[in-house]
Design a protein that fits this description.
Among the domains are: about 90 residues, 2-Layer Sandwich (Gyrase A, domain 2), CATH 3.30.1360.70; about 140 residues; about 190 residues, Isoleucyl-tRNA Synthetase, Domain 1 (Orthogonal Bundle). It contains 25 helices and 13 strands. It has a 4-stranded antiparallel sheet with strand order 1-2-4-3. Strands 6-5-10-11 form a 4-stranded parallel sheet, sandwiched between helices. α7 packs across α12 and α22 runs parallel beside α25. It is globular and about 85 Å long. The chain starts with a helix and ends in a 9-residue tail after the last helix. The structure holds arginine (ARG). Arginine binds next to α15 and β10.
Length: about 675
């Protein structure tokens, strides 16, 4: 049961009554309830707090405490709360009744779902996540998409929704033109025999570097011009004498600062470009290849176009490469414990693109502009291009076809795209175009996320920047987890408990967990700095800390020789004698609220925050309330039940993040 939602309903009912009796009262709308009725930040103010009286008092021009008293007089919460208290200027504080809390927990003990009811109105969600461009180096951003998407998918399912996880892989883009071209011209046969994937990755990198080189050469004059112009602007601004007018001078200083920043940016772009060009020129072999393949960019485009035109040779090569590319990615998914219901990549939609554009044109939604087919939108200044001048279709066209297909096949209520923030314009355009095209009944959401940064504050790069690099990332997390698990075990007062095999197995789980949790616990829209030390810390908001709380419970049960099934079946009463027990109980019954908060704005960090708080309260309880040596048998049983509920809630919560628990650490 979601207590917060229930309390909001009760307040809404009270306000509706008041509004009927006395017309100037207004019932706060849903968003008002959301903002004004919340969990209390501090136990001093009870468990929930309503801040409704103040805005209403302003409206009614009456003292807020009077308004609060009148709300309380109409508020019917006696079944779950003590008498509401009015505090300060007019806050209404609610404290859950202990007998009610104990009854809720008692019901959770015998419920496999821990008292979490499935959604009353299940909806169908397509979760579009991970979606790497195969055959191209996968970056850490794809791990973000994978773990965030996976966690949303699991949470939706747990709450009783129909969720379809669809991995919309990029398997039809220019990267294939690159490896096809590379395969035809630069293949090292022996290396290919040794490892298909490694050789394909090398070919991709080589061709990409050569294309990049020629593009860079072509763009160099433009960058140089930009620097020269910016230098002139700055010099001009510096030379201008002060006007004597303070306001005007301040403005001028501001303009100068901005121009200086532009200059610095232009210089750094130019330096970066020169560095990349020099890297090729300094390498005799690369320099020769670059000279001999001046038209490589066009050649790559031509190979891509041939593939898209169903050229037999290129299609055969694509079919030859795909299984190898997919196997490499699949290995990563296996390690992460992620699976999809569908993997329908861009190639799957290839045959539908022509019809999409024709339909858009027939409906008057797309028209020609500068030779390209465009959908003009109110929401964005730039139109969405669905077909290029040369006839090629685009990423956007493919995404429109995907929406059409998903509607035909699943009739979804919502489409969630877990993709990094750099694609926000694409999704803005896509959603706007889809609405025009007749899909306005669907909820479209771009679950955007920020960049993973290195220590230097620049986008985090693995050494090789490819899938192998990402595997290396997992390896290192597991290795470091192993060191921590071993040190922890060695330090146990009664000597180590774990075998070498145990330590290895636990390190796998703890290492991967740390990586996932570090990502999920961020506010997804912000950037964050990647740090092994932070993610594996035993204290703080980490998977390790939460997993440790779980393992502690399990260790109590082992030491006490507790039969968990019996304990649950006996359904003994739960006693909430001390503040630590009560605080733990309140956190336990708030699990449902955390899950709904995750789905309210698709933010898994709402769940990590909750689990961290629960683990904290458990830790206080553990320090203050002896369990196996409780003063009475009743209390021992009650505390064991609290331990068991905590462990189950932690395990369930972590499972929704795609994280496993370990029995011992
Ligand atoms: N393959 C794309 C990339 O790596 C992401 C695709 C996301 N999904 C979608 N339906 N556009 O940038």
């Amino acid at each position: 049961m979601n207590i917060l939602a229930e309390i909001r309903r009760r307040f809404a009912a009270a306000l509706a009554e008041l509004a009927q009796e006395e017309p100037p009262w207004t019932a706060a709308g849903e968003s008002g309830m959301r903002d004004l009725v919340r969990q209390s930040q501090d136990a001093k103010f009870g468990d929930y707090q309503a801040n409704l009286a103040m805005p209403l008092a302003k409206q009614l021009a009456r003292p807020p405490r009077d308004v609060a008293a009148q709300i309380v007089a109409h508020l019917d919460v006696a079944d779950l709360c003590h008498e509401p208290q009015i505090a300060g200027p007019g806050f209404i504080n609610l404290t859950l009744r202990d007998d009610w809390l104990a009854a809720r927990l008692g019901a959770a003990v015998s419920d496999a779902r821990l008292g979490i009811a499935p959604a009353a109105k299940p909806r169908t969600f397509i979760v579009d996540y991970s979606a790497p461009n195969v055959a191209k180096p996968m970056h850490v951003g794809h791990i973000r998409s994978t773990v965030i998407g996976d966690s949303l998918y699991r949470t939706l399912k747990f709450l009783g929704h129909r969720a379809i996880g669809d991995n919309h892989i990029g398997d039809w883009g220019t990267q294939f033109g690159m490896i096809i071209h590379g395969y035809k011209h630069f293949l090292d046969k022996a290396a290919y025999e040794r490892s298909h994937v490694d050789e394909l990755a090398r070919l991709y990198r080589l061709v990409n570097q050569l294309v990049d080189y020629h593009e860079g050469r072509a763009r160099l004059p433009e960058l140089e011009k930009r620097v020269a112009e910016a230098e002139q602007t700055v010099a001009g601004l510096r030379a201008a004498p002060p006007t004597g007018d303070a306001k005007a001078d301040k403005k001028a200083a501001q303009i100068l600062r901005r121009a200086e920043a532009d200059l610095a940016a232009a210089k750094s772009d130019l330096a970066e470009m020169r560095r990349r060009l020099a890297a090729v020129e300094a390498d005799a072999r690369l320099a020769r290849l670059a000279r001999d393949h001046a038209g490589i960019a066009e050649a790559v485009l031509a190979e891509t176009a041939k593939l898209h035109a169903d050229d037999a040779e290129n299609l055969a090569l694509w079919r030859q490469f795909m299984p190898d590319c997919m196997a490499a990615i699949q290995h990563l998914y296996d390690r992460l414990g992620v699976r999809f219901d569908e993997t329908l990549g861009e190639s799957f939609y290839h045959d539908r693109l022509r019809k999409v554009v024709d339909d858009l044109v027939a409906k008057g939604l797309a028209r020609e502009s500068g030779g390209a087919m465009c959908v003009f939108l109110e929401e964005t200044p730039a139109p969405m291009i669905v077909q290029k001048r040369d006839g090629a279709f685009l990423y956007a066209t493919s995404d429109l076809a995907t929406i059409q297909y998903r509607q035909e096949r699943w009739q979804p209520d919502a489409l969630l795209y877990v993709v990094d923030h750099r694609q926000s314009l694409h999704f803005q355009q896509l959603f706007a175009a889809a609405r025009l095209w007749g899909y306005g009944h669907m909820e479209f959401a771009h679950i955007s996320f920020g960049t993973v940064l290195g220590d230097d504050g620049r986008p985090f790069k693995t050494r090789s920047g490819d899938t192998v690099g990402l595997e290396g990332l997992l390896d290192e997390a597991v290795e470091r987890a192993h060191a921590i698990v071993s040190a922890n075990d060695d330090a146990k007062s009664d000597g180590p408990e774990l075998t070498a095999a145990d330590r290895k197995r636990i390190a796998q789980t703890v290492g991967i967990a740390a990586l996932k949790y570090a990502d999920l616990s961020q506010n997804r829209t912000s950037d964050y700095v990647f740090s092994y030390d932070k993610m594996l810390a035993m204290n703080g908001n980490t998977a390790t800390y939460v997993q440790y709380a779980y393992a502690r419970v399990r260790s109590i049960f082992r030491r006490g020789g507790v039969d968990v099934e019996r304990l649950r079946a006996d359904a003994a009463p739960i006693l909430l004698d001390t503040p630590a027990e009560r605080a733990l109980a309140v956190a336990l019954v708030q699990f449902a609220e955390a899950l709904e908060a995750v789905l309210a704005d698709y933010r898994p960090n709402q769940l990590t925050t909750y689990l961290f708080e629960l683990a904290n309260r458990y830790s206080t309880f553990f320090d203050q309330c002896p369990v196996l040596k409780a003063p009475s048998e009743e209390l021992r049983t009650s505390r064991l039940l609290l331990c068991d509920l905590t462990a189950r809630t932690l395990a369930q919560g972590l499972a929704l993040l795609g994280i496993d628990v370990v029995e011992q650490m």
